[in-house]
Amino acid sequence: MSDDPTTTKTTDDSTGSETVDDSASSGVAGAVQDFMGTIDWVEIFSTFLLALATVATAWSGYQASRWSGEQSIAFSEANAARVESTRASTQAGQQIQIDVALFTQWVDAYARDEKDLEQFYLKRFREEFKPALEAWLATKPQTNPDAPLSPFAMPEYELAAQAEADRLSAEAEEAGRLARRNNQRSDNYVLCVVLFASSLFFAGISTKLVRPRSRQAILALGYLVFVGTVIWLLTFPVSFGI
Predict the structure, then answer these.
(1) Which of these, 3, 37, 52, lies nearest to 199 by C-alpha position?
(2) What are the distances in angstroms from CA 103 to CA 92, 160, 219?
(3) What is the pLDDT of residues 169-181, one digit of tens each?
(4) Mean pLDDT per 10-residue run, the chain (242 residues)?
(5) Nearest residue to 53 (alpha-carbon basis) of 187, 191, 185, 201
(6) How far apart are alpha carbons 31 and 226 in whole angstroms?
(7) Measured between alpha carbons, how far is 105 from 109 in angstroms, rounded to an integer?
């Protein structure tokens, strides 16, 4: 026998060799097993979920605020474009009134064959109107029944102010669509905040229950909500700014 009380040596008569029975190793294994049995795994996993959900909630709140700001900017741009479009459209309407008034007087002088008065009005036509008038006269409206009724029906009659108004109107519509899209993105992030808060609730309440199965079920539900929300969150666009 050895002097060590935890180690026993025996001799095999057939081979003459000795074997060692180390009872200390089995004692350490038992101690480790006992230690692992005392760990509250629900507490550990709930703490982990609380940390993750807290960070995710903060990120979602930040993104919701960012996209709300993007929405406000887009709406401001849409309103500004609409104001400019209205101004350009008003200017185009005024120019049309001028063209119509001068053309009416010119036609009257042309019909009475008053050359001087005709030239007087002709010199006062706007530059945008003259190509349409020349194209209309080229159709011989006095003898051609198929000629357009007036220069205003000619494709050559184009107003830069009206084209600018149409462009600004389209720009306002696009900015409005962007604002509505950004508003939806902000709402989606707010919903993520609510879902992450739910997972925080489940993680916290799981540590207060007594029955192990109830604790595990509530914690699993919290992880399910968290993971599902994260997967949905990864499909969202991200906005950064300083």
Answers:
(1) 52
(2) 16, 19, 82
(3) 999 999 999 999 9
(4) 47 48 54 50 87 94 93 94 95 93 90 86 90 89 85 90 94 94 95 94 83 86 94 92 68
(5) 201
(6) 36
(7) 6
User: Which residues on adjacent β-strands are paired with residue 10?
Assistant: 19
pLDDT the model gives residue 36 = 47
Q: Dig out the tokens for 154 from the structure.
A: 């000619």
Other CB atoms within 10 Å distance of the CB of residue 161: 18
Tokens 């107003």 appear where? 159
